[in-house]
Amino acid sequence: MLSSLLLPSLLLIIGLALLVWSSDIFIEGAASTAKHLSISPLIIGVVVLGFGTSMPEVVVATLASLDNSPGLAIGNAVGSNIANIALVLGFTAIIAPIVVKSSILKRELPVLLAISVGAYLLVLDGHLDIYDGIILVVALVAVMGWMIKANKAIDTSDPLASETQSELDDLPELTKNKALIYLVGGLIILMLSAKMMVAGAVDIAHFFEVPEVVIGLTIIAIGTSLPELAAAISAARKNEADLMIGNIIGSNIFNILAVLAVPALLAPSALDSDVLYIDMPIMLGLTFMMLLMAIPRKGKAIIHKSEGILLVSLFIAFLILLYFRATAV
């Protein structure tokens, strides 16, 4: 009986490993291609470094929706946002206190909260349909336009500007042709690895007779959040807290507006009641907590180790909750 789990487990594990690796290749190729096109470093920071780490979620959501598994896609979008805040931000804060200095981030955090609340109100009717998808895509274009404009106007002395430039300087120098190979090749491997993950995850969900959305909220969400975790740890080691927070904000905005739009457009469906009344409110609560933690206290906005421990503890509690939900099915 357990032998029937071997192939799906291998597909999931190998797909996950390839997903993380190809995500890095894709981002390096995209950033280098943008540099060759003389695009502003801060624009690259917003579009490539911020949103590029969400490409795994987009690909997984697309393939899951085409495979008629919208619950997996929805769980991935919501679960990734929960993991980005509770796991990625929390784990990084445990490594070293996070000092938020950039003014643009303090403006983007309320925007993220507003988008999260707006998306929740959009699906309160219990359905994610094509009209919701259109609204999310229009909002994505508007928010990206605002973020690009805001980053163009950012002062060069802002910590986010210097940290973004430093991150771009650390990327390998690629020729234009090699950058395109990285970009296209990374995207192709990303799609293949995501297909493997989705196939393995769906089979595992069917084997244990748990809703696909639970797999999306756990294994898939954590797996697709690994690029953000790797980027966060790297930024923490380089003392680039603002860039790390910026990546999480950009990723979470993209997860809501782009990733959640995919199942809405490709596989409209009813939302699982637990997602609507438990998981999405948890996502909103964590987003609000991140906003509170980034508010300056005594002139500084510092996310301390104790707050990191709290966030990680909440993530573990969330996983325990999901376990009991899965076993109760």
Describe the structure.
By secondary structure, the protein is mainly alpha-helical. It has a single domain (54-164, 199-327), classed as NCX, central ion-binding region (A middle domain of Talin 1). It contains 14 helices and four strands. It has helices at residues 6-36, 41-52, 55-66, 70-95, 103-122, 130-152, 159-170, 176-208, 212-224, 226-237, 241-259, 261-266, 273-293, 305-327, and strands at residues 98-100, 127-128, 269-270, 301-303. A two-stranded antiparallel ribbon has the order 1-4. Strands 2-3 form a two-stranded antiparallel ribbon. It is globular, with a radius of gyration of 19 Å. The model has no long low-confidence stretch (mean pLDDT 86).
List strands and helices in order, with pairings:
Blueprint lengths: L5 H31 L4 H12 L2 H12 L3 H26 L2 E3 L2 H20 L4 E2 L1 H23 L6 H12 L5 H33 L3 H13 L1 H12 L3 H19 L1 H6 L2 E2 L2 H21 L7 E3 L1 H23 L2
Antiparallel strand pairs: 1-4, 2-3
Give me the Rg, rounded: 19 Å
Strand content: under 5%
Structural class: mainly alpha
One letter per element, helices H and strands E, the order comes to: HHHHEHEHHHHHHHEHEH
Compute the separation of the termini in Å.
20 Å
Largest sheet data: 2 strands, antiparallel
Uncertain ranges: none
Task: Round the mean pLDDT to the nearest integer and report it.
Answer: 86
In short:
By secondary structure, this protein is mainly α. Helix content is 80%, strand content 3%.
